[in-house]
Design brief:
With about 475 residues, the protein is mainly alpha-helical. The protein folds into two domains: about 25-200, Ferritin (Up-down Bundle); about 240-465. About 60% of the residues lie in helices and about 0% in strands. The protein is built from 20 helices and no strands. It has helices spanning about 20-25, 30-55, 60-85, 100-110, 115-140, 145-170, 180-190, 240-245, 250-265, 265-275, 285-310, 320-330, 335-345, 350-360, 365-390, 395-410, 415-420, 430-440, 445-450, 460-465. The radius of gyration is 25 Å and the shape is globular. Mean pLDDT is about 90; it is low at about 460-470.
Protein backbone atom coordinates (compact mmCIF):
# COMPACT_ATOMS: atom_id res chain seq x y z
CA UNK A 1 0.00 0.00 0.00
CA UNK A 2 1.35 3.42 -0.98
CA UNK A 3 2.06 5.81 1.92
CA UNK A 4 0.02 8.93 2.48
CA UNK A 5 2.36 11.53 0.99
CA UNK A 6 1.73 15.22 0.56
CA UNK A 7 3.99 17.58 -1.36
CA UNK A 8 5.23 20.83 0.16
CA UNK A 9 2.19 23.08 0.66
CA UNK A 10 0.34 20.82 -1.80
CA UNK A 11 2.36 22.08 -4.76
CA UNK A 12 2.07 19.88 -7.88
CA UNK A 13 4.63 17.09 -7.49
CA UNK A 14 7.14 15.89 -10.07
CA UNK A 15 7.29 19.17 -11.98
CA UNK A 16 3.63 18.77 -12.92
CA UNK A 17 4.30 15.75 -15.15
CA UNK A 18 2.03 13.36 -13.27
CA UNK A 19 0.98 12.20 -9.82
CA UNK A 20 3.23 10.18 -7.55
CA UNK A 21 0.89 7.21 -7.98
CA UNK A 22 1.23 7.37 -11.77
CA UNK A 23 5.01 7.61 -11.59
CA UNK A 24 5.20 4.68 -9.16
CA UNK A 25 4.14 2.24 -11.90
CA UNK A 26 7.14 0.64 -13.68
CA UNK A 27 5.98 1.29 -17.26
CA UNK A 28 7.86 0.21 -20.36
CA UNK A 29 11.56 -0.67 -20.57
CA UNK A 30 13.95 1.40 -22.66
CA UNK A 31 14.18 -1.48 -25.12
CA UNK A 32 10.40 -1.66 -25.51
CA UNK A 33 10.09 2.11 -25.83
CA UNK A 34 12.70 2.18 -28.57
CA UNK A 35 11.05 -0.71 -30.40
CA UNK A 36 7.67 1.06 -30.49
CA UNK A 37 9.13 4.50 -31.25
CA UNK A 38 10.95 3.01 -34.23
CA UNK A 39 7.63 1.76 -35.55
CA UNK A 40 6.02 5.16 -35.11
CA UNK A 41 8.98 6.71 -36.92
CA UNK A 42 8.53 4.23 -39.77
CA UNK A 43 4.84 5.12 -40.02
CA UNK A 44 5.46 8.86 -40.20
CA UNK A 45 8.21 8.34 -42.75
CA UNK A 46 5.98 6.16 -44.95
CA UNK A 47 3.04 8.58 -44.67
CA UNK A 48 5.42 11.37 -45.72
CA UNK A 49 6.50 9.30 -48.72
CA UNK A 50 2.90 8.51 -49.71
CA UNK A 51 1.67 12.09 -49.50
CA UNK A 52 4.70 13.45 -51.31
CA UNK A 53 4.35 10.90 -54.10
CA UNK A 54 0.69 11.79 -54.69
CA UNK A 55 0.80 15.63 -54.60
CA UNK A 56 1.66 16.17 -58.27
CA UNK A 57 -0.96 13.93 -59.84
CA UNK A 58 -3.71 14.77 -57.34
CA UNK A 59 -6.14 17.01 -59.26
CA UNK A 60 -8.18 18.41 -56.34
CA UNK A 61 -6.57 21.66 -55.20
CA UNK A 62 -7.66 21.37 -51.55
CA UNK A 63 -6.18 17.87 -51.30
CA UNK A 64 -3.01 18.90 -53.12
CA UNK A 65 -2.38 21.65 -50.56
CA UNK A 66 -3.58 19.45 -47.69
CA UNK A 67 -1.15 16.70 -48.68
CA UNK A 68 1.65 19.28 -48.82
CA UNK A 69 0.86 20.34 -45.25
CA UNK A 70 0.53 16.82 -43.90
CA UNK A 71 3.73 15.65 -45.61
CA UNK A 72 5.61 18.45 -43.88
CA UNK A 73 4.07 17.56 -40.50
CA UNK A 74 5.00 13.90 -40.97
CA UNK A 75 8.57 14.93 -41.80
CA UNK A 76 8.75 17.03 -38.64
CA UNK A 77 7.45 14.23 -36.42
CA UNK A 78 9.78 11.69 -38.02
CA UNK A 79 12.64 14.10 -37.32
CA UNK A 80 11.64 14.49 -33.66
CA UNK A 81 11.36 10.72 -33.22
CA UNK A 82 14.78 10.17 -34.81
CA UNK A 83 16.29 12.55 -32.30
CA UNK A 84 14.54 10.92 -29.34
CA UNK A 85 15.47 7.38 -30.38
CA UNK A 86 19.08 8.50 -30.66
CA UNK A 87 18.98 9.53 -27.00
CA UNK A 88 18.00 6.06 -25.80
CA UNK A 89 21.18 3.96 -25.97
CA UNK A 90 20.48 3.09 -29.60
CA UNK A 91 23.53 3.53 -31.82
CA UNK A 92 23.35 2.59 -34.64
CA UNK A 93 19.73 3.63 -34.91
CA UNK A 94 18.60 1.28 -37.69
CA UNK A 95 15.88 3.73 -38.68
CA UNK A 96 15.92 2.72 -42.32
CA UNK A 97 15.02 -0.88 -41.50
CA UNK A 98 11.49 -2.18 -42.15
CA UNK A 99 9.97 -3.20 -38.79
CA UNK A 100 7.74 -5.92 -40.30
CA UNK A 101 6.94 -7.04 -43.88
CA UNK A 102 3.19 -6.72 -43.26
CA UNK A 103 3.58 -3.14 -42.06
CA UNK A 104 5.53 -2.37 -45.22
CA UNK A 105 2.77 -3.96 -47.31
CA UNK A 106 0.13 -1.91 -45.45
CA UNK A 107 1.72 1.38 -46.52
CA UNK A 108 2.52 0.01 -50.00
CA UNK A 109 -1.21 -0.57 -50.43
CA UNK A 110 -2.07 3.02 -49.53
CA UNK A 111 0.65 4.38 -51.80
CA UNK A 112 -0.69 2.34 -54.72
CA UNK A 113 -4.35 3.28 -54.20
CA UNK A 114 -5.67 3.76 -57.78
CA UNK A 115 -8.03 6.68 -57.12
CA UNK A 116 -8.21 9.77 -54.95
CA UNK A 117 -11.15 8.25 -53.09
CA UNK A 118 -9.27 5.08 -52.21
CA UNK A 119 -6.15 7.06 -51.29
CA UNK A 120 -8.15 9.20 -48.87
CA UNK A 121 -9.78 6.14 -47.31
CA UNK A 122 -6.47 4.33 -46.89
CA UNK A 123 -4.78 7.40 -45.46
CA UNK A 124 -7.69 7.88 -43.06
CA UNK A 125 -7.25 4.32 -41.81
CA UNK A 126 -3.49 4.73 -41.42
CA UNK A 127 -3.89 7.85 -39.29
CA UNK A 128 -6.49 6.10 -37.16
CA UNK A 129 -4.29 3.08 -36.42
CA UNK A 130 -1.26 5.24 -35.68
CA UNK A 131 -3.16 7.55 -33.33
CA UNK A 132 -4.61 4.64 -31.35
CA UNK A 133 -1.21 3.02 -30.78
CA UNK A 134 0.45 6.28 -29.80
CA UNK A 135 -2.29 6.67 -27.19
CA UNK A 136 -1.48 3.19 -25.89
CA UNK A 137 2.19 4.10 -25.62
CA UNK A 138 1.36 7.26 -23.66
CA UNK A 139 -0.72 5.25 -21.19
CA UNK A 140 1.77 2.44 -20.72
CA UNK A 141 5.13 4.20 -20.50
CA UNK A 142 6.28 5.71 -17.22
CA UNK A 143 5.37 9.43 -17.33
CA UNK A 144 8.45 10.44 -15.33
CA UNK A 145 11.21 8.24 -16.70
CA UNK A 146 10.03 8.58 -20.30
CA UNK A 147 8.91 12.20 -20.13
CA UNK A 148 10.95 13.20 -23.24
CA UNK A 149 9.20 10.58 -25.40
CA UNK A 150 5.80 11.53 -24.07
CA UNK A 151 6.49 15.15 -24.96
CA UNK A 152 7.47 14.26 -28.55
CA UNK A 153 4.36 12.13 -28.94
CA UNK A 154 2.11 14.72 -27.30
CA UNK A 155 2.87 17.18 -30.08
CA UNK A 156 2.53 14.42 -32.66
CA UNK A 157 -0.94 13.55 -31.34
CA UNK A 158 -2.07 17.17 -31.41
CA UNK A 159 -1.28 17.41 -35.10
CA UNK A 160 -2.48 13.90 -35.86
CA UNK A 161 -5.89 15.00 -34.55
CA UNK A 162 -5.87 17.96 -36.95
CA UNK A 163 -4.72 15.77 -39.83
CA UNK A 164 -7.40 13.22 -39.01
CA UNK A 165 -10.15 15.86 -38.96
CA UNK A 166 -9.05 17.12 -42.38
CA UNK A 167 -8.95 13.68 -43.95
CA UNK A 168 -12.20 12.66 -42.24
CA UNK A 169 -13.92 15.61 -43.94
CA UNK A 170 -12.24 14.69 -47.22
CA UNK A 171 -13.45 11.10 -46.88
CA UNK A 172 -17.00 12.33 -46.26
CA UNK A 173 -16.88 14.32 -49.50
CA UNK A 174 -16.88 11.10 -51.49
CA UNK A 175 -19.97 8.89 -51.75
CA UNK A 176 -20.01 5.77 -49.58
CA UNK A 177 -18.96 2.71 -51.55
CA UNK A 178 -18.44 -0.97 -50.88
CA UNK A 179 -14.94 -2.36 -51.08
CA UNK A 180 -13.05 -5.30 -49.65
CA UNK A 181 -9.86 -3.25 -49.53
CA UNK A 182 -10.43 -2.30 -45.89
CA UNK A 183 -10.27 -6.02 -45.07
CA UNK A 184 -6.86 -6.20 -46.77
CA UNK A 185 -5.58 -3.21 -44.82
CA UNK A 186 -6.89 -4.50 -41.51
CA UNK A 187 -5.44 -7.94 -42.13
CA UNK A 188 -2.02 -6.49 -42.86
CA UNK A 189 -2.01 -4.46 -39.65
CA UNK A 190 -3.01 -7.52 -37.63
CA UNK A 191 -0.29 -9.60 -39.26
CA UNK A 192 2.21 -6.84 -38.39
CA UNK A 193 1.20 -7.13 -34.75
CA UNK A 194 -0.49 -3.75 -34.93
CA UNK A 195 1.20 -0.47 -35.73
CA UNK A 196 3.19 -0.78 -32.51
CA UNK A 197 3.84 -4.52 -32.81
CA UNK A 198 2.13 -5.46 -29.53
CA UNK A 199 -0.46 -7.88 -30.95
CA UNK A 200 0.87 -11.44 -30.71
CA UNK A 201 1.67 -12.87 -34.11
CA UNK A 202 0.34 -16.21 -35.33
CA UNK A 203 2.83 -19.04 -35.07
CA UNK A 204 2.10 -19.88 -38.71
CA UNK A 205 2.13 -16.61 -40.68
CA UNK A 206 -0.24 -16.22 -43.60
CA UNK A 207 0.76 -14.87 -47.04
CA UNK A 208 0.50 -11.07 -47.19
CA UNK A 209 -2.91 -10.15 -48.71
CA UNK A 210 -1.92 -7.49 -51.23
CA UNK A 211 -4.44 -5.94 -53.65
CA UNK A 212 -3.29 -2.67 -55.23
CA UNK A 213 0.41 -3.18 -54.51
CA UNK A 214 0.78 -6.51 -56.28
CA UNK A 215 2.75 -4.46 -58.82
CA UNK A 216 5.30 -1.87 -57.61
CA UNK A 217 3.97 1.67 -57.49
CA UNK A 218 5.07 3.88 -60.39
CA UNK A 219 5.36 7.62 -59.70
CA UNK A 220 3.25 9.88 -61.93
CA UNK A 221 5.10 13.16 -62.65
CA UNK A 222 2.31 14.73 -64.74
CA UNK A 223 0.59 17.57 -62.84
CA UNK A 224 -3.18 17.25 -62.65
CA UNK A 225 -5.74 19.96 -61.85
CA UNK A 226 -9.47 19.86 -61.14
CA UNK A 227 -12.09 21.43 -63.42
CA UNK A 228 -11.81 24.87 -61.78
CA UNK A 229 -8.41 25.29 -63.43
CA UNK A 230 -9.65 26.04 -66.91
CA UNK A 231 -7.09 26.39 -69.72
CA UNK A 232 -4.04 25.56 -67.56
CA UNK A 233 -1.64 26.15 -70.49
CA UNK A 234 -2.69 29.77 -70.96
CA UNK A 235 0.17 32.27 -71.32
CA UNK A 236 -2.01 35.20 -72.36
CA UNK A 237 -1.05 37.52 -69.48
CA UNK A 238 2.56 38.37 -68.72
CA UNK A 239 2.30 38.96 -64.98
CA UNK A 240 5.97 39.93 -64.59
CA UNK A 241 5.76 42.52 -67.35
CA UNK A 242 2.76 44.13 -65.65
CA UNK A 243 4.27 44.03 -62.17
CA UNK A 244 7.54 45.69 -63.17
CA UNK A 245 5.98 48.37 -65.36
CA UNK A 246 6.16 51.70 -63.52
CA UNK A 247 3.15 52.99 -65.42
CA UNK A 248 0.69 50.78 -63.54
CA UNK A 249 -0.63 51.59 -60.03
CA UNK A 250 0.35 49.54 -56.99
CA UNK A 251 -3.23 48.54 -56.22
CA UNK A 252 -3.63 46.83 -59.60
CA UNK A 253 -0.20 45.26 -59.19
CA UNK A 254 -1.38 43.79 -55.88
CA UNK A 255 -4.10 41.92 -57.77
CA UNK A 256 -1.52 40.61 -60.21
CA UNK A 257 0.71 39.52 -57.34
CA UNK A 258 -2.18 37.50 -55.95
CA UNK A 259 -2.36 35.71 -59.28
CA UNK A 260 1.37 35.03 -59.01
CA UNK A 261 0.96 33.65 -55.52
CA UNK A 262 -1.87 31.32 -56.53
CA UNK A 263 0.14 30.22 -59.54
CA UNK A 264 2.79 28.94 -57.12
CA UNK A 265 0.80 25.75 -56.74
CA UNK A 266 3.07 24.51 -59.52
CA UNK A 267 6.09 24.62 -57.18
CA UNK A 268 4.83 21.83 -54.89
CA UNK A 269 4.02 19.85 -58.03
CA UNK A 270 7.62 19.99 -59.22
CA UNK A 271 9.25 19.83 -55.78
CA UNK A 272 7.27 16.70 -54.91
CA UNK A 273 8.83 15.08 -57.93
CA UNK A 274 12.35 16.20 -56.89
CA UNK A 275 11.86 14.82 -53.38
CA UNK A 276 10.24 11.57 -54.52
CA UNK A 277 12.82 10.82 -57.19
CA UNK A 278 15.94 11.81 -55.26
CA UNK A 279 16.76 8.81 -53.06
CA UNK A 280 19.65 8.26 -50.69
CA UNK A 281 19.92 11.73 -49.16
CA UNK A 282 20.34 12.39 -45.43
CA UNK A 283 16.99 12.74 -43.69
CA UNK A 284 17.59 16.46 -43.16
CA UNK A 285 17.33 16.96 -46.92
CA UNK A 286 13.81 15.53 -47.03
CA UNK A 287 12.72 17.47 -43.96
CA UNK A 288 14.00 20.81 -45.29
CA UNK A 289 12.71 20.28 -48.81
CA UNK A 290 9.32 19.29 -47.39
CA UNK A 291 9.24 22.53 -45.44
CA UNK A 292 9.95 24.51 -48.59
CA UNK A 293 7.27 22.60 -50.51
CA UNK A 294 4.73 23.38 -47.78
CA UNK A 295 5.70 27.06 -47.84
CA UNK A 296 5.05 27.18 -51.57
CA UNK A 297 1.63 25.61 -51.06
CA UNK A 298 0.91 28.27 -48.41
CA UNK A 299 1.87 30.94 -50.91
CA UNK A 300 -0.69 29.58 -53.35
CA UNK A 301 -3.32 29.70 -50.62
CA UNK A 302 -2.34 33.30 -49.87
CA UNK A 303 -3.32 34.09 -53.44
CA UNK A 304 -6.61 32.25 -52.98
CA UNK A 305 -7.39 34.19 -49.79
CA UNK A 306 -6.37 37.48 -51.38
CA UNK A 307 -8.76 37.00 -54.28
CA UNK A 308 -11.51 36.14 -51.80
CA UNK A 309 -10.78 39.25 -49.72
CA UNK A 310 -10.98 41.46 -52.82
CA UNK A 311 -14.26 39.92 -53.97
CA UNK A 312 -12.72 38.18 -56.99
CA UNK A 313 -13.43 34.66 -58.25
CA UNK A 314 -9.93 33.22 -58.62
CA UNK A 315 -11.10 30.61 -61.10
CA UNK A 316 -11.53 33.39 -63.67
CA UNK A 317 -7.75 33.78 -63.77
CA UNK A 318 -5.93 31.13 -65.74
CA UNK A 319 -3.72 29.37 -63.21
CA UNK A 320 -1.17 27.57 -65.34
CA UNK A 321 0.77 24.32 -65.00
CA UNK A 322 3.29 24.89 -67.82
CA UNK A 323 6.21 25.26 -65.45
CA UNK A 324 5.71 22.16 -63.32
CA UNK A 325 4.67 20.05 -66.30
CA UNK A 326 7.69 20.95 -68.36
CA UNK A 327 10.22 20.65 -65.54
CA UNK A 328 8.76 17.27 -64.60
CA UNK A 329 8.82 15.96 -68.16
CA UNK A 330 11.84 17.69 -69.74
CA UNK A 331 14.32 17.87 -66.85
CA UNK A 332 15.97 15.41 -64.52
CA UNK A 333 15.20 15.94 -60.81
CA UNK A 334 18.66 17.49 -60.44
CA UNK A 335 18.06 19.89 -63.33
CA UNK A 336 14.67 20.83 -61.87
CA UNK A 337 16.35 21.59 -58.52
CA UNK A 338 18.88 23.69 -60.40
CA UNK A 339 16.10 25.72 -62.02
CA UNK A 340 14.41 26.17 -58.65
CA UNK A 341 17.59 27.45 -57.03
CA UNK A 342 18.46 29.68 -59.97
CA UNK A 343 15.07 31.38 -59.82
CA UNK A 344 15.24 31.72 -56.03
CA UNK A 345 18.50 33.64 -56.36
CA UNK A 346 16.76 36.00 -58.75
CA UNK A 347 14.25 36.77 -55.99
CA UNK A 348 16.87 38.00 -53.54
CA UNK A 349 17.90 41.37 -55.12
CA UNK A 350 15.87 44.51 -54.56
CA UNK A 351 13.94 43.85 -57.77
CA UNK A 352 12.66 40.57 -56.35
CA UNK A 353 10.78 39.92 -53.12
CA UNK A 354 11.62 43.27 -51.55
CA UNK A 355 10.01 44.98 -54.53
CA UNK A 356 6.87 42.87 -54.17
CA UNK A 357 6.68 43.66 -50.45
CA UNK A 358 7.08 47.40 -51.09
CA UNK A 359 4.44 47.20 -53.81
CA UNK A 360 2.11 45.50 -51.34
CA UNK A 361 2.71 48.33 -48.86
CA UNK A 362 2.11 50.95 -51.54
CA UNK A 363 -1.16 49.31 -52.58
CA UNK A 364 -2.90 50.44 -49.40
CA UNK A 365 -4.10 46.87 -48.84
CA UNK A 366 -2.70 45.66 -45.48
CA UNK A 367 -3.47 42.02 -46.23
CA UNK A 368 -1.37 42.08 -49.39
CA UNK A 369 1.51 43.70 -47.52
CA UNK A 370 1.30 40.95 -44.90
CA UNK A 371 1.29 38.23 -47.54
CA UNK A 372 4.30 39.69 -49.32
CA UNK A 373 6.14 40.24 -46.03
CA UNK A 374 5.93 36.55 -45.16
CA UNK A 375 6.44 35.44 -48.76
CA UNK A 376 9.72 37.35 -48.77
CA UNK A 377 10.81 35.80 -45.45
CA UNK A 378 10.00 32.33 -46.76
CA UNK A 379 12.02 32.84 -49.93
CA UNK A 380 15.07 33.90 -47.91
CA UNK A 381 14.75 30.62 -46.01
CA UNK A 382 14.43 28.71 -49.29
CA UNK A 383 17.61 30.28 -50.56
CA UNK A 384 19.36 29.02 -47.43
CA UNK A 385 17.91 25.53 -47.96
CA UNK A 386 19.35 25.59 -51.47
CA UNK A 387 22.75 26.58 -50.16
CA UNK A 388 22.59 23.70 -47.69
CA UNK A 389 21.49 20.93 -50.02
CA UNK A 390 21.93 22.01 -53.67
CA UNK A 391 25.08 24.12 -53.90
CA UNK A 392 27.43 21.59 -52.18
CA UNK A 393 26.89 19.21 -55.10
CA UNK A 394 28.98 21.59 -57.22
CA UNK A 395 32.43 23.08 -56.86
CA UNK A 396 31.12 26.48 -55.87
CA UNK A 397 28.13 28.83 -56.01
CA UNK A 398 29.03 30.05 -59.51
CA UNK A 399 28.95 26.52 -60.93
CA UNK A 400 25.70 25.75 -59.12
CA UNK A 401 24.04 28.82 -60.62
CA UNK A 402 25.43 28.11 -64.09
CA UNK A 403 23.96 24.61 -64.00
CA UNK A 404 20.53 25.97 -63.04
CA UNK A 405 20.77 28.71 -65.66
CA UNK A 406 21.51 26.17 -68.39
CA UNK A 407 18.59 23.97 -67.36
CA UNK A 408 16.23 26.97 -67.18
CA UNK A 409 17.38 28.20 -70.59
CA UNK A 410 16.66 24.78 -72.07
CA UNK A 411 13.09 24.92 -70.82
CA UNK A 412 12.54 28.54 -71.86
CA UNK A 413 13.93 28.01 -75.35
CA UNK A 414 10.65 26.61 -76.67
CA UNK A 415 8.16 28.00 -74.18
CA UNK A 416 5.60 29.07 -76.76
CA UNK A 417 5.23 25.57 -78.22
CA UNK A 418 2.03 24.99 -76.25
CA UNK A 419 0.18 27.23 -78.70
CA UNK A 420 1.67 25.37 -81.62
CA UNK A 421 0.36 22.13 -80.10
CA UNK A 422 -3.13 23.63 -80.02
CA UNK A 423 -3.34 23.51 -76.23
CA UNK A 424 -4.44 27.10 -75.71
CA UNK A 425 -5.49 30.29 -77.46
CA UNK A 426 -3.66 32.49 -74.94
CA UNK A 427 -6.90 34.20 -73.92
CA UNK A 428 -6.34 37.53 -72.14
CA UNK A 429 -8.22 36.95 -68.87
CA UNK A 430 -6.87 40.05 -67.10
CA UNK A 431 -9.59 42.64 -67.98
CA UNK A 432 -12.40 40.49 -66.57
CA UNK A 433 -10.53 39.81 -63.32
CA UNK A 434 -9.49 43.44 -62.90
CA UNK A 435 -13.04 44.68 -63.55
CA UNK A 436 -14.36 42.19 -60.99
CA UNK A 437 -12.01 43.62 -58.35
CA UNK A 438 -13.02 47.19 -59.22
CA UNK A 439 -16.73 46.37 -58.97
CA UNK A 440 -16.23 44.75 -55.56
CA UNK A 441 -14.41 47.87 -54.37
CA UNK A 442 -16.93 50.22 -55.96
CA UNK A 443 -14.41 52.11 -58.09
CA UNK A 444 -14.19 52.55 -61.87
CA UNK A 445 -11.46 50.56 -63.63
CA UNK A 446 -8.39 52.45 -64.86
CA UNK A 447 -8.54 52.39 -68.69
CA UNK A 448 -4.75 52.01 -68.96
CA UNK A 449 -4.75 49.00 -66.62
CA UNK A 450 -7.75 47.53 -68.39
CA UNK A 451 -5.93 47.76 -71.71
CA UNK A 452 -2.98 45.60 -70.64
CA UNK A 453 -2.50 42.95 -73.34
CA UNK A 454 1.05 41.60 -73.12
CA UNK A 455 1.59 37.82 -73.39
CA UNK A 456 4.65 35.72 -72.54
CA UNK A 457 5.47 35.03 -76.17
CA UNK A 458 8.77 36.52 -77.22
CA UNK A 459 9.65 37.52 -73.64
CA UNK A 460 12.33 34.98 -72.76
CA UNK A 461 15.03 37.58 -72.06
CA UNK A 462 12.68 39.74 -69.99
CA UNK A 463 11.74 36.79 -67.81
CA UNK A 464 15.37 35.95 -67.09
CA UNK A 465 16.24 39.57 -66.36
CA UNK A 466 13.43 39.85 -63.86
CA UNK A 467 14.63 36.64 -62.21
CA UNK A 468 11.08 35.68 -61.34
CA UNK A 469 10.62 33.02 -63.97
CA UNK A 470 7.15 31.58 -64.18
CA UNK A 471 6.97 29.87 -60.80
CA UNK A 472 6.67 32.50 -58.13
Amino acid sequence: MLPNYTSYKNLPPLAGLCTLEEAAKPGLSVEECVRRLKRFHYCFKRLHQILMARITAEPIYELKTGFAHHAYLCAEHATALRARIGEMREPPLGLDEVPHPALEAFFDEILAAPTTEELVKGYHRGLSYLSEDIDSYQRETNPLTDAPSRRVLKFARLELDEMFEFIRAAKAAFPASESDWHIVLHSLVIQAGGIDGTIPEDEKPYPLPRLYSTKPYVYDPIPKRDERFSDPWNQGVNAESFLYNEAYPARAKALMMLYKRLREIDVPEMMARIITQTPGKPWGYYRDMSRQLWDEARHAMMGEVGFFALGVDWTKAKITLNWSHRLNTECTPMEAHGVLYYIEQGLMPRTGKRYEFETGQASGLPLIATFQDFDWADEVLHSQIGREWYVPQFGNLKEALAYGDAAWSKVLSNWATVKEKGLTQHENWWPAVYEMACRAEGVPPDPAVLAFRETYEGKRADLKDVGEGLSG
